[in-house]
Amino acid sequence: MLSFIILTLATLHAGVHLMGYSRSFSTAGTRIIHQPIPRKMGILWLAVCLLFLAAGVGYLLELDWWHYCGISAIVLSQVLIITDWKEARWGTLINIVLLSVIIWDMVG
Known about the structure:
Elements (H helix, E strand, L loop, with lengths): L1 H24 L13 H22 L5 H18 L1 H4 L2 H17 L1
C-alpha cells in the first residue's frame, strides 16, 4: 500500500512539473498555471519531472539510488515553488510528504 501511495504521489507531482514545462513553451495549461514560465525555467521543470519519475520507478523496483533522485527532485521542486510561492506553495506539502517517506526508508 505504501508503495502505491509513493508511486502515485511521485507520478502526480511529476505531472504537475510536466505542466510547468509545457507552460513554458506554449499557452497550454494556462488554467492551472497562470504565470508565464521562462523557457530556461521550463527545462528545470522538465528535469524535476524526470527526477520524480525516476525516483518513483526506482522505489517500485527497490533500486538503491531512488533516494538520491527523490531528494534531488524535492530540492529542485522547492526552488521552483519558492520562485512562484503564491501559485505553487501547495507543492511544498507534497514535497514534505515525499521527503518524510525517503527519510523513513533510509533510516529503516
